[in-house]
Request: fold
Amino acid sequence: MRVSTEDQAREDFSLPEQRERLETFCKFKDYKIVDYYKVNILL
Reply:
């Protein structure tokens, strides 16, 4: 999961929203999420 731009964050593609979608998808597919990593990269 990721947010690339400030626009994406403002348009409800924030990290919490993406995480929720990822967890829903994984639950549906019976996938196990092992861990989460957050990396801040400023260009």
In short: DSSP finds two helices and no strands in the chain.
